[in-house]
Design goal:
By secondary structure, this protein is of the alpha/beta class. The protein folds into two domains: about 50 residues, no CATH class; about 240 residues, TIM Barrel, CATH 3.20.20. Helix content is about 25%, strand content about 20%. The chain is built from nine helices and 19 strands. It has a nine-stranded mixed β-sheet. It is globular and about 65 Å long. About 50% of the residues are buried.
């Protein structure tokens, strides 16, 4: 089995040829005239010419290659709260991009035009890792995000971009479903500073029927991230009416969360809107999000947020000790800031878990699409 951490592509290689040159870094194993992709728990076994479930990993005679390397569905500067990350340099700008395809098959996908794309002609932007990192630096971003579709499937490109980002003093963020194998996650997360992991539900039946996946690998990834790494993690659960929003299931999720991730790990409950294969399901009522938030707080989780609805109180950060407002949020815009330069509560001195600048950044709610010139 090949190691995952390969050298960056040498300058001068034509972008369209990069995917032919990944053989020194493939993450696969030979399986009786087939190649097994060892990146995610699907372990796709492919003959030359076949592509995996994610569509972007293709078997060739020499092994499995990433056909989307160096290509993206667009580059945007976002507020970091949009990831969502509320405890990782609040108010800062983050350069975000994704590719195409996904290793899950969520029927409710809200980025389906990207994650369910099966053609690489969706990828209209080309950029070398150095160019991506330079663009983030020029734009005044504090970090780089691999998002919109799951970075696990374009891990080689994400790792190279993360390496370039770290060389320039930038942070890196993965927005992911956490569907990655134990043998791949060490190499991938060694290059990641923070992650928002999408815990789709707390039911194997939900994962099987609506995501074509399994719950346990995600829980295993979350436990490993918390216990074995220094990656800052926040967790998001999209509450879908009638499918994963019951008090019983949320109670089970919260109990597991406290026991395995601890009370200081932030949890986000976000609202579903009808999309993709589930347009017959209604939007999530704000009352459901508020009930879930109160339930999670009662279970012992200190920082619980609501998303995809207007809820100034549910999106702001409060001290777990004295209850005072620490970071006020109005959607993605920051208001009152009551953290000291050391990241402690200004009222009682209790540290707030996370990563904070001495002063808040002020990117605000706007997002801006940018073009990265080819090199």
């Amino acid at each position: 089995m090949a190691a995952f951490g390969r050298k960056m592509v040498k300058p001068g290689i034509v972008l369209g040829e990069w995917w032919h040159r990944l053989n020194d870094g493939r993450f696969d194993s030979a399986q009786h005239k087939r190649f097994q992709c060892d990146l995610c728990p699907r372990y796709c076994k492919l003959r030359p010419g076949q592509r995996g479930f994610c569509f972007v990993r293709e078997a060739r005679e020499e092994g499995i290659v990433l056909s989307s390397y160096g290509r993206a569905s667009g580059f945007c500067i976002d507020p970091i709260e949009k990831k969502p990350l509320n405890h990782f340099y609040p108010g800062s700008a983050i350069l975000s991009f994704g590719t195409a395809g996904c290793n899950l098959g969520c029927r409710f996908c809200q980025n389906w035009s990207i994650s369910k794309a099966s053609q690489n002609d969706r990828l209209t932007d080309w950029a070398a890792p150095d160019a991506v990192a330079d663009a983030a630096l020029r734009a005044g971003c504090r970090s780089l995000a691999f998002t919109y579709n799951d970075p696990v499937i374009f891990a080689e490109y994400a790792i190279d971009c993360a390496t370039a980002a770290h060389e320039r003093g930038l942070k890196t963020v993965a927005v992911t479903a956490g569907y990655i194998t134990p043998q791949a996650r060490g190499d991938f997360y060694a290059h990641i500073d923070a992650a928002n992991v999408d815990l789709k539900a707390f039911s194997q039946q939900f994962y099987h029927k609506l995501c074509f996946a399994n719950l346990e690998p995600v829980l295993d990834t979350l436990r490993w991230l918390k216990q074995e790494t220094n990656v800052w993690i926040e967790v998001t659960t999209l509450l879908i009416p009638g499918h994963n929003d019951s008090e019983a299931e949320i109670g089970q999720l919260c109990d597991w969360f406290v026991q395995n991730l601890g009370p200081e790990t932030p949890l986000h409950f976000t609202a579903f809107h009808p999309d993709f294969k589930m347009i017959d399901v209604p939007r999530t009522p704000a009352s459901t999000l508020n009930r879930a938030r109160q339930q999670a707080k009662a279970a012992g989780i200190h920082h619980v947020y609501t998303g995809n609805v207007y809820d100034k109180s549910g999106q702001s950060t409060y001290c777990a000790n004295c209850g005072q407002l620490l970071i006020e949020r109005d959607w993605y815009t920051l208001g009152k800031w009551n953290l000291t330069e050391k990241g402690t509560c200004r009222f009682c001195g209790t540290p707030l878990a996370g990563h904070f600048a001495a002063r808040p950044d002020s990117w605000g709610a706007h997002r801006r699409q940018i073009n990265i010139p080819r090199r």
